[in-house]
Design a protein that fits this description.
Elements: E1 2-7, H1 12-23, E2 26-34, H2 40-53, E3 57-62, H3 65-69, H4 99-113, E4 118-120, H5 136-149, E5 157-159, H6 167-177, H7 199-210
Parallel strand pairs: 1-2, 1-4, 2-3, 4-5
Length: 226
C-alpha cells in the first residue's frame, strides 16, 4: 500500500478523509496540528482516537505562530466566536489567515520525509465562500508549489476528495464507510458539550439532519438547520 498523509483536525471531514484514503488503497499517516485554537485539546484527543481506531501513525505538531499572528476568533481570546449565519458568504472572523497553506506545507514535509505519495485534506464546497484557502483554485496552485519545491524524484499528489461535495455528502459517505463520528469534534467554542450554534456546529448538524441521521456527539443545543 502506498502511504498518504492525511491532515486530521479531529473533525468529521478529516476523519472521513482518512477512511476515504484507506478506501482508495492508501496507508494513512495522520498529521494533527495544535496552533492555539480554543478547542485544541479536544481536537487532539479525537485525532488520537481516530488514529488508534484505524491503526495509523499520528504526528502532532504544536505551534503558536498562527495564534500570535492573530486576526481570528479561533485563536484570539478577545474575539468572540459568532453565532452561525449559513447564508452569509463573506469571509468570517473564524478564518485563520492562510492556515491551510501553513498546514499543507507541514504535510508536504511530512510526506516527503516518509515516502508518502499523496496528501489528503477534507475541505468541501460549503467552505468556498468563507475560506479562500479551501477553494479548488488554491489546491491546484498548491500542487504546483509541491511539484517545484520538492526533490526531483519526489511525487506527491494533493487530494481534496470532497472539494466539490456538500457537508451532507461527506456525512453520507462517512456513514457508508463506518467513520466513528462519535469520536470527532467540530465545535469552535467548547470542548464539551458542543455549543450547537457556531458555524461549525451548524454545518455539522445540518449535514446529519439532511442525511437522516443523528449526530452522536453531545450538544448544548440542537437547532433544526434543515
Amino acid at each position: 500500500m502506498s502511504r498518504a498523509v492525511v491532515l486530521v483536525s479531529g473533525g468529521m471531514d478529516s476523519a472521513t478523509a482518512v477512511y476515504e484514503a484507506m478506501k482508495r488503497g492508501h496507508e494513512p499517516l495522520c498529521l494533527h496540528t495544535s496552533y492555539g485554537q480554543a478547542t485544541e485539546a479536544k481536537e487532539y484527543e479525537c485525532a488520537r482516537r481516530l488514529a488508534e481506531t484505524v491503526d495509523a501513525g499520528l504526528c502532532r505538531v504544536e505551534t503558536d505562530h498562527l495564534a500570535k499572528l492573530g486576526d481570528s476568533s479561533l485563536t484570539d481570546d478577545d474575539m468572540a466566536v459568532p453565532d452561525a449565519d449559513l447564508a452569509d458568504e463573506e469571509v468570517p472572523d473564524t478564518y485563520v489567515p492562510f492556515r491551510n497553506a501553513n498546514l499543507l506545507a507541514m504535510a508536504v514535509s511530512f510526506a516527503e520525509a516518509n515516502d508518502a505519495s499523496a496528501i489528503f485534506i477534507g475541505a468541501h464546497s460549503e467552505d468556498f465562500s468563507g475560506y479562500p484557502d479551501c477553494r479548488p483554485a488554491f489546491f491546484e496552485a498548491f500542487q504546483r508549489v509541491v511539484d517545484v519545491g520538492t526533490k526531483p524524484e519526489t511525487e506527491i499528489t494533493l487530494q481534496a476528495p470532497f472539494v466539490e461535495w456538500s457537508k451532507t455528502d461527506i456525512a453520507e459517505r462517512g456513514l457508508e464507510l463506518g467513520v466513528p463520528y462519535e469520536h470527532t469534534w467540530s465545535c469552535y467554542r467548547s470542548e464539551a458539550p458542543a455549543c450547537g450554534t457556531c458555524d461549525a456546529c451548524a454545518y455539522r448538524l445540518q449535514a446529519f439532519q439532511r442525511a437522516g441521521a443523528t449526530d452522536p456527539i453531545e450538544y448544548a443545543e440542537r437547532p433544526d438547520y434543515t
